[in-house]
């Protein structure tokens, strides 16, 4: 076990899930199955609530009043306290998924997602790897 109670950890990415899932949406791991029900937490930053050494799951994390079990294979990394998001509120960046410019409103440390606003006023959420600086793309 690599983590301890109180550590903030990042769950593996949605890209990892999509690349490894089988035809019914399950990633088969050594100790457990990572199903589509857990995919909604991919890329999110969560806090370890308790640790069990004699259990199928190593770590337990409270999510919306429920306790979910996680294994080392499901966690990407520990998030250091000095973690700083790449972009800040007010930055104008390019969303590679929607192929549109967006304005960063804020970074949600709990979910690991940027809250963004499109030029038409619609708000959304984006992962850091979906965003890039406008000088890295040609924007028409």
Query: How would you spell out the order of helices and strands?
Result: EHEEHEEEEEEEEEE
Helix content: under 10%
The helix-and-strand class reads mainly beta
Radius of gyration based on Cα positions: 17 Å
Task: Report low-confidence residues grouped into runs of 5 or more.
Answer: none
Shape: globular
Strand arrangement, major sheet: 12-11-10-9-13
Secondary structure tally: strands: 13
Distance between the termini: 49 Å
Q: Count up the helices.
A: 2
The biggest sheet, with number of strands, parallel, antiparallel or mixed sense and barrel status, is:
5 strands, antiparallel
In round numbers, the mean pLDDT is 82
Strand content bin:
35-45%
Tally of separate domains:
2
Structure overview:
This protein is mainly beta and 140 residues long. It has 2 domains: 8-78, no CATH class; 92-136, SH3 type barrels. 8% of the residues lie in helices and 38% in strands. It is built from 2 helices and 13 strands. The protein has helices spanning 14-20, 36-39, and strands at residues 8-11, 27-28, 33-34, 45-47, 50-51, 59-63, 66-70, 75-78, 92-95, 100-108, 113-118, 123-126, 131-133. The strands form 4 sheets. The protein has a 5-stranded antiparallel sheet, with no helix packed on it. Strand 10 (100-108) and strand 11 form a beta hairpin. The longest helix is centred in the N-terminal third of the chain and has 7 residues, at 14-20. The radius of gyration is 17 Å and the shape is globular. The mean pLDDT is 82.
